[in-house]
DNA sequence: CACCTGTTATAACATTAGTATAACAGGTGG
DNA sequence: CCACCTGTTATACTAATGTTATAACAGGTG
């Protein structure tokens, strides 16, 4: 999977890396069980330090998106599938986003439509622009 | 409005302050035109430095949630109501959240329900737990 | 044994967050 | 005019964080 880092972003490199890998899993560009490039290889490809990649992998492991096999290295593995816990994890961030959206005059329907559209996109559904 | 800061959070103080004020506007605990405490007063109340509050106010001003009247000080004023731009601003963060949600096994319906619930909460709608 | 994996340790450097002190310009009310 | 309020700016300092650099180690592969 192609990783693109914006070095002028105010978002930390390791954070961008985490997000892109999670995006990759969600959009099936990374499939369950797929081996990730080694920390050294990924660092070389992107042009950053090994430790920055390692930090991203460590976080992804803690959050349950990645596991490590001593033989093969890091690979995609979404372990924790506890529904209630997952909702709780997402809810806090969602509250901040929805607050901002509401302040900017966006309606509930606007946000439901946005979620619907992005989710379909992740699912690979071809939309015929149904209004 | 009561502001609560978690000093052991990994989220910056000024960021927490911004979020809480936006949350306050979204939930109508802060109404349009309402004057915010002065940077010095707010800093004293919370127990932080004046500059940290000033940083939050400056960001809120840049993002269009607050304006400054030389006579009265800072007050709530959601200026920019451009719908397309608002959606674009929210979309990027939403993509990250939805990717994480999808990886954790949450369905589109789960997320639509979450958005629906939080939005109603912000609107002050009393839900009769309709399934 | 050479080579790969993640992991750990240590040091150095740059940027950011937060605090502290002080000053300034504009506006208000005595 | 004067004291007092507002946000704003400047400067300096400390602490934490992000990133890099170099090096070493244990486990597994061929």
Oligomer: homodimer
Written as H for each helix and E for each strand, in order along the chain, the element string of chain A is HHHEEHH
CATH topology of the largest domain in chain A: Arc Repressor Mutant, subunit A
Extended strand count of chain A: 2
Alpha-carbon distance between the termini of chain A? Answer: 33 Å
Mean pLDDT across the residues of chain A is 93
Low-confidence stretches of chain A at least 5 residues in length (pLDDT < 50)?
none
- Second rung of CATH, namely the architecture of the largest domain in chain A: Orthogonal Bundle
- Give the structural class of chain A: mainly alpha
Q: Please give the most extensive interface between any two protein chains, plus how many residues each contributes.
A: A-B, 43 and 43 residues
| Biggest sheet statistics of chain A | 2 strands, antiparallel
Radius of gyration of chain A: 17 Å
CATH domain class of the largest domain in chain A: Mainly Alpha
**Overall 3D form of chain A:** globular
Q: Give the count of structural domains of chain A.
A: 2
């Amino acid at each position: 999977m192609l990783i693109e880092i914006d070095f002028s972003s105010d978002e930390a490199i390791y954070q961008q890396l985490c997000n892109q890998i999670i995006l990759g899993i969600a959009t099936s560009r990374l499939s369950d069980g797929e081996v990730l490039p080694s920390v050294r290889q990924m660092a070389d490809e992107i042009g950053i330090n090994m430790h920055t990649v390692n930090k991203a992998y460590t976080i992804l492991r803690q959050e349950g998106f990645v596991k490590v096999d001593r033989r093969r290295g890091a690979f995609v593995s979404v372990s924790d599938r506890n529904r209630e816990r997952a909702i709780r994890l997402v809810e806090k961030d969602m509250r901040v986003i929805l607050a901002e959206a509401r302040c900017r005059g966006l309606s509930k329907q606007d946000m439901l439509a946005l979620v619907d559209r992005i989710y379909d996109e992740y699912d690979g559904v071809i939309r015929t622009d149904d209004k």
